[in-house]
Structure prediction request, 113 residues.
Amino acid sequence: MLFQWDLGRDSPDKVEELFWSNTRPLPDEPLHDAANSLFRGTVEAVEEIDRLIRRSAEHWRLERMAAVDRNLLRLGTYELLYHPETPPPAIINEALEIARKFSGEESVPFING
Prediction:
């Protein structure tokens, strides 16, 4: 959802509707609600999150990062800031696993940094 939102900047409602209309099988309600909550929370805090990423990303402009990487950093930063109940190593590990699956080979060390 973040990737789609980032590229199109449609409303979160529209992004969620399109995402879930193309997802089969649909997840159970708790997973569906958790995904929507993470997506909306990240979008709502994106200005603050992007400021933090810009400050930490040496020699990289946010706009030049691969869209998958940029959104993994956004999601991970959101979770680190707003979901203290989730252990930071779990957040980082999930971001790295998604990068391994959906991004380039240089993405894992980049995101890990």
In short: The first helix runs from residue 2 to 8. The chain has a mean pLDDT of 94. Residues 40 and 92 are 20 Å apart (CA to CA). Helices lie at 2-8, 12-21, 29-44, 46-56, 67-82, 88-102, 107-112.
